[in-house]
């Protein structure tokens, strides 16, 4: 039995069922083939496909779109009709992606729509129509049929046949409305059937369900009320939108036996969608990389990486481009040999202890790690991805845009040598396998932080390089969480807001940052249960809210995700225009992008204000003091930095500002960057309970202990306390004989808390530890320590990367306070609370904040000297940016303004400088410095 049209919660606030519930219920009712046709979107198709396969249902991939009417603009259709498009094969699926994109990015006024001409074979990328078009019961044709206009009805169908051919067309029978006479609907359907038989067009009954059970009409009305922002009483349904069974459907259309004859049509749908790329990442799609004749991705990455070794460590400090002139691509073998024999001058490498490079064969460790990572990347087929990210990182460096990897992506030496990340993974003992496990199929995923004021510039670089049709930002969806669902439902039901608010606050937060649910609430809140059982309004609200819990409420844009695809993006996902942010985004979320194979094309590019602050403060130091600062080559043992942190002067310091962590830093009195990295990892729920002991051991070496002596090899920096996920990996490797890949797999498995997995691994762990000479009592003690730790352990690569950035901001504040605070206040301009706090911080640092001055101020805050910062003219109300620009430009060209007459004469050149502008300057004190 074929369900030709169905809707899920991906039809935002226009349908109730979750995809899994829809499939399960449809199967119970006897449907064997189901088409998902959510409105204006294909966002649910991946989830739909997987659920159909799981439950043995044949899936048809589709959508519902508005199409501009040909004959009328009256009645329910209001100038637009609804058609459903169903993919017959993969090409048809891609055609639907492009048509949805057209509707959602171009033809969005007065509503998302397509025109009939958009469906012509000539517009389907050189193919015919590989999809079936369904003229739905919500089409202008239904009005003609209800009016008994057989001539116009037949003419309209023939127009569609002329465009699509009759083989590509199905017409849906009308569904009785509550306000319609059943006999009139029956008569219209009989007329439709006669026309279809004459024209040899298929017709079919399809319920177009928007909820599953007849009793779900109230929740559906509530959802529509939320969408329309009205009370539920004003929502009247035209008909029942429940999902009928086979018998009910047959009874509805017993006068047309062919209405449920679906077998012939069913055979035409044979679209296959791969959704297993997350498990077979090596087969996924990767962004294109331009190669010259004779080049390969693998060797190009190797060349770039060894050039990076020279840039980072060679005593002759010069740019990547200059080293490439010395060692062009063709001389890669010589480059490798010369790197192996590279001389090292410890005095040049300021961010390392002098003793570090006195160890024999130190550079050999880097060569070995480079070759290890290159082999893993090469074997998994990921070289092109690293080249794409490395190219973007190099663009940022060349453009003086602060950028760095975060997350596990910071745990690659190749990333470090290609400007992608900030932490030397050899020096900080960060295993590459935590990022890219050779035993696991998942693709690499490098997340980049960039200066927030340059993020759009970075994305534009990708657009310019790869083409606008291959770069888009990733869409995401907000869900109905329990608290929000209660407030929404309570509002449309007309229940007192205070009552709804109090009810929502009874939803408890589960441990370790897991999302709250009604299930967890009923199991853990006696007060909630009591109110639910004794208050009819509450019961009504909660019963509806439970049904829509987790449903998508609205679409949005991922804060960082950017997609670069090897072919036009619409080959892989439909796109839509985000009106609020004015950008094109994917309809598939990030996880679904991964499942259809385009996640390797994704980069998380997140704008970070601290990077803008760093870049601006460095630029000011260069302008004001002539000092060039290379943050990648500064000393990490600067006593001024640790004094600043130990005194709690953390305002504006990345990751370390705020009362709680500042208190701990004062107690800790950090003396090395590893202390900072550890605090980044520990100051989180769960992990915070280890901070007091961490502080005690830091301040009293006699308290430092290790469960077994071998743990000292990798836990000296954390004083024997488990802090990082990588600590677990090393523990399994060093004590139980696991390799890196196995250790990472166990770490992941333990986090899922599967009993059978834990039992099996405990046996393996025990055997390995016994083979290494550990006692059984000690093994069990270690295991009991490890298992709960996996709940809150943190990624060392991420902590190291963020710890370094934290140190950088502290370094700039400690050594160049005026420049740092100026950049900080400029970044926070417009936020009155942050500006107030920054001014108070300046006062505490003996830096005077002076009022705006036409002879000293620029648009934003300006440094006068190391003890004085002047407000920007942009802070003056009623003063336009064009006037400010003229003041600054004229001052730079003609010198300071001598007096009021001089100022007024020179400002006469700009027409809109008036009495109001002058008064604004006078009142602000910006004119006080002028001579009379």
Folded structure, characterized:
- The structure is a single chain.
- The mean pLDDT is 91.
- The protein has 932 residues and is α/β, with parallel strands linked by helices.
- It contains 38 helices and 17 strands.
- Helix 5 (150-164) crosses helix 6 (182-199), helix 24 (639-646) packs across helix 33 (796-815) and helix 33 (796-815) packs across helix 34 (817-827).
- The strands form four sheets. A seven-stranded mixed sheet has the order 1-2-3-4-5-6-7.
Please give a quick description of this structure.
The protein is an alpha/beta fold and 932 residues long. Helix content is 46%, strand content 10%. Helix 10 (297-313) runs antiparallel to helix 13 (362-380), helix 23 (609-625) crosses helix 34 and helix 34 runs antiparallel to helix 35 (832-844).
Features:
932 residues; alpha/beta; 46% helix
The shape is globular
Q: Helix- and strand-based class?
A: alpha/beta
Number of helices: 38
Radius of gyration: 33 Å
Percent in helix: 40-55%
Instruction: Give the oligomer, counting copies of the same chain as homo and different chains as hetero.
Output: single chain
Strand content: 5-15%
Describe the strand arrangement of the main beta sheet, using strand numbers.
1-2-3-4-5-6-7
Overall pLDDT score: 91
As residue ranges, the low-confidence spans are: none
What is this structure's SSE topology?
Blueprint: E1 2-3, H1 19-28, E2 33-36, H2 45-55, E3 58-68, E4 80-87, H3 90-105, E5 131-135, H4 140-146, H5 150-164, E6 169-172, H6 182-199, E7 202-204, H7 217-228, H8 246-252, H9 263-266, H10 297-313, H11 320-326, H12 332-340, H13 362-380, H14 383-398, E8 403-406, H15 413-417, E9 447-451, H16 455-466, E10 471-479, H17 482-493, H18 497-504, H19 518-524, H20 526-534, H21 536-548, E11 552-564, E12 575-578, E13 583-586, H22 590-595, E14 602-608, H23 609-625, H24 639-646, H25 659-668, H26 673-682, H27 691-699, H28 712-715, H29 725-736, H30 740-752, H31 755-771, H32 776-789, H33 796-815, H34 817-827, H35 832-844, E15 848-850, E16 862-865, E17 868-870, H36 881-894, H37 900-907, H38 915-924
Parallel strand pairs: 1-2, 2-3, 5-6, 6-7, 9-14, 15-17
Antiparallel strand pairs: 3-4, 4-5, 8-9, 10-11, 11-14, 12-13, 16-17
Helix pairs in contact: 1-2, 4-5, 5-6, 7-17, 7-21, 10-12, 10-13, 10-14, 17-18, 17-21, 20-21, 23-33, 23-34, 24-33, 26-33, 29-30, 31-32, 33-34, 34-35
